[in-house]
Amino acid sequence: MTRALVLFAHGARAASWAAPFERLRDLTAARLPGCTVRLAFLELMEPRLPETVSQLVADGVGDVTIVPVFLGQGGHLLRDLPLLADGLRTAHPGLRLNVAGAVGEDPDVLDAMTNYCVRSIL
């Protein structure tokens, strides 16, 4: 079964806002050569999550993991993402869809951010 990883970010009006997420996508893809890695947005930017997943399914992907590139579990991840995931499961009943926790809540990510903050004052 073909697998894909979708990095899911909020989106913003300024196109330059997407640059760090695009770098993250590219770095992630380089470490997962057998996996399709895409970037999708909740709002204000394209591509949106439903279109991204629909295109992956059309390309033959049967297993998609969504990684919310958010610092915490705010309203978008508590309300919006579950609704989007339910809609995707309904639209693509054969798709295996997994949703990871917010990247900013992972202990290793928090440790890396703490290290950066500490280094910035030294």
From TrEMBL:
<protein>
    <submittedName>
        <fullName>Sirohydrochlorin chelatase</fullName>
    </submittedName>
</protein>
<keyword id="KW-0456">Lyase</keyword>
<dbReference type="Pfam" id="PF01903">
    <property type="entry name" value="CbiX"/>
</dbReference>
<dbReference type="InterPro" id="IPR050963">
    <property type="entry name" value="Sirohydro_Cobaltochel/CbiX"/>
</dbReference>
<dbReference type="InterPro" id="IPR002762">
    <property type="entry name" value="CbiX-like"/>
</dbReference>
<keyword id="KW-0479">Metal-binding</keyword>
